[in-house]
Amino acid sequence: MQKIILLLLGCAFLCACQSDAKDNQPYALAVNSNSRMQPTKYVPVPMPGQLMSTKKTSSPHRLTGEAAIEVANKKSVRQPTTGEYINSIMNFDYMPGALYQIYSAPLSVTDIQFQSGERIITVGAGDTSRWQVSKTHSGVSANRQEHLLIKPTDEGLTNSLVVTTDLRTYHMMLHSTPKTYMASVAWRYPDGDGLIAKLDDDSSNGISDITNGVDVSRLNFNYKLKLTKGPQPDWYPTMVFNDGSKTYIKFPNRVQDAPSLFVGDKKNSQIVNYRVQGNYYIVDNIFYVAQLRSGQNNQTIVQIAMKTR
Predict the structure, then answer these.
(1) Residue 276 has pLDDT above 70, yes or no
(2) Domain edges within the chain
(3) Is 216-306 assigned to CATH 3.30.70.20?
(4) Pairing mode, if any, of strands 158-165 and 120-125?
(5) Which residues, listed in sequence order, are joined to residue 270 by a DSSP beta bridge?
(6) Count of other CB atoms within 10 angstroms of residue 100
(7) Higher pLDDT, 16 or 158
(8) pLDDT of residue 102 exceeding 90
(9) DSSP 191
(10) Kind of pairing between the strands at 77-78 and 99-104
């Protein structure tokens, strides 16, 4: 009996040891054998400003060398136009660096005239053997005006001409045609370039300086003159400008038939009061359109208009 009890106690102890061993083993998560776990993928999120187009943008192509020179020269060309003629005089608007096209013909002379009081310093031409270029002048003292006379020896020629004066530099391309030629060429200077030199010249000849006390930075020369009726008069204005409150019209010396001034266009104009000082008409206001008229039967009319920028 004693043996039976000992045997039962040994079996119970062995079962208890096996149970403790199982309890001490680590636990494992249950896995479904029918499915496979997918690895987590990392997707980067761009920060603001990091988004960039994958399309390549082409940088602007810049010309260099001869190609750049050809393009620049074409852009600077100034051709004669019918609307800028006064009788046979082609009037270019002066612009530094512009390339003015002048047309002449064999056995004909083209007169290139400069601003009154402007002095020519040098004349340079590319072809001096087949082009005749001579210098002369008209008028005296304050009315002195310098000219260049141009004449080609043959047709189909092209020449470059550079003229430097005490006020400006002019660049011209000369072309010779079989018969067509420009009788005369002149320039307009709406920016008032050279005003001080001209006023100094006027003062030296006894003409009072009308711009005393005027702020030169406010002077506006943005006016256009046009002969609308009759032949070109001897009083054709040489300069028009305003100082913000008054308008000044300058005339050549020795005017025989002084014109009357009307403010407004042809259909709606009225005579306006002005005072004369030296070679100037001075109007005590600013006008946008005006007319200078002279004569009764054969009337001559010159229109003055402020240019729109």
Answers:
(1) yes
(2) 75-188, 216-306
(3) no
(4) antiparallel
(5) 263
(6) 22
(7) 158
(8) yes
(9) T
(10) parallel
Centroid of chain to Cα 186: 21
Amino acid found at 99: L
User: Tokens 């005017």 belong to which residue?
Assistant: 255
Looking only at the bridges linking them, the beta strands covering 184-188 and 89-93 are parallel
How many C-alpha atoms does 244 have within 13 Å on its Cβ side? 8
Mean pLDDT of 32-38: 56
Query: For residue 276, what are its two tokens?
Result: 């004369």
Paired strand residues for 292: 261, 302
DSSP code per residue over 53-89? -SSPPPPPPPP-HHHHHHHHHHHHEE---GGGEETTE
CATH of 75-188, one of 2.40.128, 2.60.40, 2.40.10, 3.10.450: 2.60.40
11 three-class SS: helix
CA 216/CA 33 separation, integer angstroms: 98
Mean pLDDT to the nearest integer, 154-179 = 95
CA–centroid distance for 113 within its chain: 24
Of 292, 189, 169, residue with least CA distance to 237: 292
Rounded CA gap, 281 and 273, in Å? 10
**Do the domains 75-188 and 216-306 sit in the same CATH topology, yes or no?**
yes
Least confident segment among 128-142, 201-215, 289-303: 201-215
Q: How far apart are the first and last CA of the chain?
A: 134
